[in-house]
User: Fold these one by one.
Assistant:
Number 1:
Amino acid sequence: MESVRVMPRPVAAVCAVVVLALLVVPLLDSRYLIDLFTEIMIYALFALSLNVLIGYSGNVSFGHAAYFAIGGYTCAILLTTYEWGFAPAFAAAVIASALAAGLVAWFCVRLTDIYFAMLTLAFAMVVWGVAFKWRSVTGGDDGFVGVSVPAMLDSRIGFYYFTLAATGLSAAVLWLICHSAFGRCLVAVRENRIRAGFVGINTRLMRWWAFVVAGTFAGVAGAIFGMFHRGMYIESAFWTESATVLIMTLLGGIYSFFGPAIGAATLFVLERLTNEYTEYWPIVLGMILVGILLFLPDGLAGLARKLASYRSRGG
Amino acid sequence: MAQLELRDVHTAYGQSQVLFGVSFSVEPGECVALIGRNGVGKTTTIRSIAGLVAPRRGAIEWLGENITGRPSHRVAKLGIGYVPEERRIFPELTVWENLDIARRETPGGWDEERVFELFPDLRPIQTRLGGVLSGGQQQMLTIARSLMGNPRLLLLDEPSEGLAPRVVESLREQVRSLKDEGLSIVLAEQNLSFVLSLSDRCHIMEKGEIRHSGSTGELRDHPEILEQYLTV
């Protein structure tokens, strides 16, 4: 038996096709598509990171945007205000997100269920408050604008390929984490904390690590986001951002590794399309959420699995 | 020195007290049975040892160390394996993954190979999800999972409950071979033939207390003791 669960062939084939398709997007020579797919990849990583916490360890966070914002602001401030090089600024942003997640998780994993979720929201609002009030550093509600992006990432296509490489590598690392012995222990904790405890799993420690992994990769997504938009804004730390990534994750399906990435892409495209016809995107978003909760409890990935099993049964 | 010793253990769930001063000990390699009707406190005694419920009073000592109220993962790491009633496996994990999460490697200890030798039925279904196994397979997996933690003492709570007679018979042989290897066992069980064939000593429980303690031989020779406490 392998210590890491092998990716099923159909999933590996779909991944290869998606990566190939993403590689040729810049050849279409459309600024709109390049920007759209850059942002989709960033949010896909953001949603994949949240799913380590929700889908694998069974802890719902209402404040995941905090680590996205910490990564984004740290990278932007170090690049611009302190004129750090790209590599140290990016690494520091990821480390800052990991440390912040570790600190917050230390408190949160002492609670479970709704109390856990509300505490994550409370800490996220503290992060938002700091970004809002610490105007001299973060720019407050005007945002931190004019981020100095390194010359090698200055072109649209260069940044697109950087995003593809960074998010692809991050997704691969997350896959390995989630399908290792650690990931199996997280599933055991999700299934039943008491049962996992008497098997010898330190459930609180496992939940803490899941939180740190999720926060770290949200920081990666946030750092890329800040450079892509050449700025960071307090909305990125607000609870609505946490809700958006949560809906992306639910829409894609929390019991599938790639589900949240599918959810992120679907929601992002739907938002763009909706905004072309009406300004009432929040109403559409609410209807999508109702639809998921009532008809797609396992998300789009669950629906795809059901259709595949229906077809394989010859239905 | 006894391997495990319970002294005057009182355990309650909220306002409802279940154990009223339970005391007994387990010597290395010994199989000690807790018998009694439903609701007399056998499972609560086992749960108190496993760290799933903290006693309000009294002490539980493991190799001379007080482990009263320790969290269950620490108790497991000390070498006490727990096999709960109703075969609590992880249905979303495969058989192999169920074993892997409990793995605590010890030189010469239990690994998949040894576990599959003891439970050969598990070998061909390693990749099957736990949730689709039969009751007997789940019971084997639960015991196998505990063994992967390399315990020195196994807490078995109603292992034969709900299993077909043929499966109970093979389970009896498997538990006996564990005992022959020197593993200590605390067995809470209502199936008297299962208990009498495996245990060295028996404690009969009633209303949260141990009412009678004696060797298994004594109980075999004096069935009236069993009748006195166990018949309705």
Note: The interface with chain A takes residues 50-52, 71-73, 75-77, 82, 84, 88, 90-93, 96-97, 100-104, 112, 126, 145-146, 149 of chain B (CB under 8 Å).
Number 2:
Amino acid sequence: MFSKLPTAAKGMVPGAMVLTLGLALAACGHKPPKTLPPEPAPAVSQATPPPPTNQGPVPGSAADFVAQMMGKDTIHFALDKYSVDPGETPALQAQAQWLMRYPSKKATIEGHCDERGTREYNLALGERRATAAKNYLVSLGVDASRLTTISYGKERPIDTASTEEAYARNRRAVTVAID
Amino acid sequence: MKTSMKALLMAAGMSAVLVGAAADAQQIAPASILPPPQIQQKPADTGGLTGSVSDDSAWVDLGIDIPSFATPADVPTQASAGGTAALGRAIADVITADLKNNGLFKPIGPAKLPAIGMGDVTQPDFPGWSSRGAEMLVHGSVRAGSDGSLMVSCYLYDVRLQQQLTKAAWTFTAGDWRRAAHKCSDVIYSRLSGESPFFDSRIAYIAETGPKDHRMKRLAIMDSDGANHRFITTGQAMALTPRFSPDYKKILYLSYLNGRPRIYIYDIASSSQRLVAETGNPTFAPRWSPDGKWILYSMAVAGNTNIYRISASGGSSQKLTDTPGINVGGSYSPDGNRIVFESDRGGSQQIYVMNADGSNQHRISFFGGKAATPEWSPRGDQIAFTRIGGGGFGIAVTDPNGSGARTLTHGWQDEAPTWAPNGRIIQFFRSERGAAGRSSLWQVDLTGSHERRLPTPVDGSDPSWGPIRQ
């Protein structure tokens, strides 16, 4: 379906290479989590999920995705841009690994913008960002039919301040696993 | 006598200046003593609206006395305001508020004026009103029809000339009594300013409550003065960007119903709605054509957004723009032949114009910074838009050919202009900086020097001002 890389991911590493790199770097992201996960589960190194031995989220559940991602459910964008920054690719690799581990699971990618754009333009820009993230996941091997996108424009900021720091946090694409 | 002549000449002169109705003015006074029209004909490439805006002119200082409307018999009505006597007072109050809140004239309402009888309506006590210092006088009557209707008359007099300037009468259902007041306001305003009417019109907007990161956004409608306010949606699904149909029977808006942002067409009489276009993709930014027969919408496919046109009665869509990137919104010229829209095809948000069939797409905004949300004036002579730059948004206008751009407001974020039915006032929403996320509806005139906040029950955004009601 996507025989070549989407233009949205211009400048990124080719998919196969990224996947290899991603496996090697599993759960070893250098960036601190953007938000504190509810209960960090132990790092999973096997392709098969271990049986649930504690009170953690059910493996393969939406809550498990959030816990496993440790903030990597979200990638960020530059001002008025929708291309996937190379620094954000480890997060998408982690998402792709989880999604390939649970092939029956579907996910929605939410695109968001900071408040410095007009409402309707931001709805379109959020859709571009969500689509860029989706295309990247597809390039890593996730079936496109499992991924949907939705744009919230500037209507759902995660940081309500009107500062550069808040704007940077709000320009994002968030992958949400569906139970 | 001198003053009243001045008043009348001013009104006549403004007619000539504002609408070029020189012939009409000459019927009232010899052309030789009329003030020379400042703009006789709009230049093709003008730098702005100097001389044709309705604010600092002398007529706005005209004193107008508006006593309670008379009634032949105080008959109970279905109106919430009460019987015909109470309605006579209420109508005069609404007219007074219409004029006062828009900075038009110096109205004095019924609370400070003596009552009148039915005989006064057509034969005013000119000496009495003159001794009170009134320059202009509004009289009217309210009577109940046998079928529950209301018959309302409205007369405008020049007190010192002792002359009737205009009169009108309407029949409304009792529940629509405020429309009679707005119609009378429109008659007064149009006669004295030479402008087209705008009071008897409605506004759709988004009512906002709650914290900034989980804001509840509901579709709401109200009269142009904020009365008859009604929430249409419950807020469970986020609603955005409403547009009243030209006949006020339907509203186009974006809803996140079922977790999917798509445009619905809501029918007010039946409280039902349907999708505008059956598509698997998100649709947004809905717009009506001036005749209500066509709908423009924007649709994102694989990340790219383009503008489409579909018949208001359904059918297949026609793709009007076809470029990578974002093409969004759209606003028809009053004759329906052209569409102004927003596109980032050149690298940033700018304003483009195309023919209604999508041909001849060309950029008109070269103002520096970005330009968004263009809206064609109902008069056709201006395009309002959101000007983005310098860390904020402001409301601006330009000629349709892209020349003569002027910024009217400089809020931190003033966004999404919508025109009054007469193209003389622009409404928009203003967002406040910071974590509270407050927003409110505002109006500005075409000089940019007169701003007014519209009172709404809760915060407001995305105003959409409809045409004069028929």
Note: Chain B touches chain A through 46 residues (CB under 8 Å).
